[in-house]
Fold this sequence. Notes:
about 240 residues, alpha/beta, 2-enoyl-CoA Hydratase, Chain A, domain 1, 2 domains, six-stranded mixed beta sheet, three-stranded mixed beta sheet, 9 helices, 9 strands
Amino acid sequence: MDYNFIKTDIVEEKIAVITLNRPEKKNALSIQMRYEISDCLKKMESAREIGAVIITGSGSTFSAGFDLKEFSQPELFEEIYISSSRYHRDVWNFKKPAIAAIENQALGGGFDLATLCDIRICTENAVFGHPEIKFGAPPLFTPLRWIVGYGSARDLCLTGRIINSSAADKIGLVSEIVNIDIIERAVQIAKSILEAPMSTLITAKNYMNNNANLGFEESFVIEHDNLFISRINKLKNKC
């Protein structure tokens, strides 16, 4: 897959890496980059040779957020909205496991991208925050509070303060702070995930994405009862 602002690689069997590739701009998420991420995820979602995706940034930075220069051009406003709306949904609804491998800055839109992935790991120098609230842009609250809870999410979204890797680990924002090559560690995690059948992983991720606001009974019917009934019916049909 050839793109201008992202790079893609198959680093291990069934494991792909998407690298945000605007290092001179701290991997700012421009309109074109967002379209490229959306297109890439759609293709990887249907590719049988890919089972899990790692998202990272080039130049030892994850992403400093959206490209603010585009916001100073009124003629781009519609494209900013369209690309942003599509891209956020495409990351969130990606059917296969996605791991964010974070170095240095994950700020604003970069922070949002990390929260939309299933698993986040980071290096010791990583920092996270929503400084955009100081400039009149309310952050995405809901995906963050699903990860760290209401209290921490409210704090981070309202204050716009920057937290380091230790604080991110403490509130459960990241799974671990990595002291080896971060892609190497992300691949190890992806390999562990892919020990499960792909169909099972897709089903589990569907539950995670769609059942977050359901009560116990509603979610239990979907995650347990309907699943067992479906399996029983399949076994009966084979007999």
